[in-house]
Hints:
Blueprint: H1 36-66, H2 74-110, H3 125-130, H4 138-153
Helix pairs in contact: 1-2
Pfam families: DksA_N, zf-dskA_traR
Subunit structure: Interacts directly with the RNA polymerase.
Zinc finger (dksA C4-type): 116-140
Amino acid sequence: MDKNTPQPAKKTPGAAQQFTAFTPYAPAPSEEYMSPAQIAHFQQILEDWRGELMAEVDRTVQHMQMENVNYSDPNDRASLETDMGLELRARDRERKLIRKITQALDRIKTGEYGYCESCGVEIGLRRLEARPTATLCIDCKTLEEKREKQMAQD
């Protein structure tokens, strides 16, 4: 297996927000941006990450089915409802993230992955490894955040 082939996924313990650990991509000196090997690397990252999030969703559903207990003590009931509420909010954030991952995988299929949707320049390998769902280059993202900050202050 050469250094540009996606390595087998290594599961990262901890929060589901963490995506699978991976070996950073090392492009060859003359390799074109978003070559087939790079595309395969990012597709593997995105699919592994989506799989981890989906496993968390399944775990939550099973947990909620098993926790269908009616406590007579109001404090126990309130505690259980609070815990379930927090878990459901986390799953809702993950649901939105799964949608972004699916959109990124769709961009891979259409050949748009890795390019800024605003200006069309390369997003960059390291930025995509840090945020595989990125749709904007760092310059466009910085401008967007500045505009959002200005709008919030008005």
